[in-house]
Amino acid sequence: LSSQSAFAYPTGIAALPGRLLVSEAESSTIREIDFRQREAPLSTLLGSDRLFSKDLSAFGDSDGYAHSVRLQCPMGLCALSASSALLSDTYNHKIKVLVAPSALAINEQAEAASVSRLAGSGRRGFKDGAGATAQFDEPRGLCVQEKRGRALVCDTNNHAIRTVDLTTGDVGTWTVIEGSV
Questions:
Q1: How far is 162 from 141, CA to CA, in rounded Å?
Q2: pLDDT per position as a tens digit, 137-146
Q3: Three-state SS at 106
Q4: What single DSSP character describes residue 124?
Q5: C-alpha span between 164 and 97 (Å, rounded)
Q6: How far is the C-alpha of 144 from the C-alpha of 157, rounded, in Å?
Q7: At a CB cut-off of 8 Å and minimum separation 6, what does 46 contact?
Q8: Per-residue pLDDT tens for 72-97?
Q9: Which of 174, 78, 64, 155 is nearest to 117 (CA)?
């Protein structure tokens, strides 16, 4: 990276083989730093800001591919596999799966990255249940419990830790019972 590289409020980072994904809350984008690329290793993977434009107002809630994706203040990012990550789309109150195929060779173009909802209705609230009907209130930090097939999510304004099944998207509330940890 050069001294000209800039980020707009980076809030999350996930390490994938040979690259890092960085969530930027202010520009509502996901950046990729590809350590295999000698020229221009920093690029915009998801979102409309091609590379830190001065217009930071291109946000929304639209799943899809590459620059057509609209996020709103993505804060959490956690690796799922060599080519995917879990993403908290904080102001859209959703947990999403980001698929980021890697180029097979240096200077080869990878397939476009994509994002899709795993859990959260998009309405602010507190509701356990099926992925599309569950509600969060500004989810942020997250981690994956691979052996249990779930993610733990910091549901910030609900002051709770929520669980998300990585296969079904079903959401629950994690309860800690004294003496059980």
A1: 11
A2: 999 999 999 9
A3: coil
A4: B
A5: 12
A6: 21
A7: 29, 30, 66, 67, 69, 71, 98, 113, 115
A8: 999 999 999 999 999 999 999 999 99
A9: 64
